[in-house]
Design a protein that fits this description.
By secondary structure, the chain is of the alpha+beta class. It has one domain. It is 34% helix and 12% strand. It is globular and about 50 Å long. The N and C termini lie far apart (39 Å). The relative contact order is 0.17. The protein binds iron/sulfur cluster (2 copies).
Length: 246
Amino acid sequence: MDLTGDLKKHAKSLGSDLVGVADLALLQGIATEPADLLAPYRYAISIAVKLPHAVFEQLTDRPTPLYAQVYLNANALLDQIALRLCAHIERQKYAALPIPASQPLDMTVFRSHLSAKAVANAAGLGWQGKSLLIVTPEYGPRVRLVTVLTDMPLTADKPLKNRCGACTCCTEACVAGAIRNVSTDFHYASREEALDFQKCADKLVKEFSQMENIGKPICGLCIKVCPWGRKLKGRRSQSEAQNPAG
Ligand code: SF4
Ligand code: SF4
């Protein structure tokens, strides 16, 4: 089996639901911490773990303690998968660096070492929806993501075409009125193009993270309503399942 096929098979055996490879040439100019983070590497592996549908069905207008714990558990699983995948790559004498699944370096602007969403977008796991979330054809935005950087000579995947169409579900459901209902072909030039970021951040940091048994800036409502995530739980027809956003 080729290196890419073997790597993806191994990542799946570790518990990944989706795996893609991004050519870092597609991410030139992206903000990283430190600034030369990507310099030793040529590819970024994007890994997704899906979240259970039932936890989203409990959300009404705020996150629940159950969702908060599932969020933590998914991040822990992703970090374990990334660590083990790095060991697998290093055994083959290539370099690999895991980027933690959720480690904001600045809680006011929500920046981390590298955007896992930007990597997933470039790796073809999903397109960037109007909510800024990565929307996967398989599970909608009901996934968490982690990244592994490597110099292993892999075959990169291609980014997906945006399939939000005329859908306005996340715009209408946003509890902060933050989503602008603007689509992008590949990725937004800045997140402000898609979102009034401060409105979203204020809701999550000042209100939701202060709630008992939540303790972190999460929400889940724009994830819940996306038809690409909801299509799997209901009994939709084949045509609806293929294009649930219309
Ligand atoms: S996370 Fe919540 S507040 Fe932020 S855009 Fe989504 S629904 Fe709106
Ligand atoms: S809810 Fe609709 S507009 Fe928002 S990300 Fe999902 S498909 Fe796109």
